[in-house]
UniProtKB/TrEMBL annotation:
Residues 3-89 form the RNase H type-1 domain. It comes from the Bacteria. Coiled coil: none annotated. Signal peptide: none annotated. This is Ribonuclease HI. GO terms for molecular function: nucleic acid binding; RNA-DNA hybrid ribonuclease activity. InterPro entries: RNaseH-like_sf (IPR012337), RNaseH_domain (IPR002156), RNaseH_sf (IPR036397).
Length: 135
């Protein structure tokens, strides 16, 4: 079983976004910070979640078929959209995320408050600050 935490950070004035991914398996953490293409926070939340599942599927290969992922997000939009398999203004992003989750045996999505998602939150903010400094 894998626990996957994602978060995104966006600077509205510049349109820069970054994401943080925290993966926990067998008491070991893997932390990833990455720049995102999205220019709004909602889009960035979907993008980082989709990237996280895509990367995990690539790493696990055929093992995905027997893998359960506990997915934690502090984005209510992402959590509710995945549960409903629908989002009025973000359907293509919902479809991409669901497609990235499809290889796994089971994905349980859980909304968590930001304070319970500090690992991914910190990674996203570090990546965003690095992008702003580089710019």
């Amino acid at each position: 079983m894998y626990s996957l935490y994602t978060d995104a950070a966006t600077q509205p004035q510049s349109g820069l976004s970054a994401g943080g991914i925290l993966l926990i398996h067998d008491h070991q953490q893997t932390q990833t910070s990455l720049p995102l293409q999205a220019t709004t926070n909602h889009l960035a939340e979907f993008e980082v979640a989709t990237l996280a599942f895509t990367r995990l599927a690539h790493t696990l290969g055929a093992q995905c078929a027997t893998t359960t992922v506990l997915f934690y997000t502090d984005s209510l939009l992402v959590s509710q959209s995945v549960a409903k398999r629908y989002a009025k203004h973000y359907q293509s992003e919902v479809d991409a995320l669901l497609s990235a989750q499809r290889p796994f045996q089971l994905v349980l999505t859980q909304w968590v408050p930001e304070k319970q998602n500090q690992g991914a939150h910190t990674l996203a903010n570090q990546a965003l600050h690095a992008r702003e400094d580089f710019k």
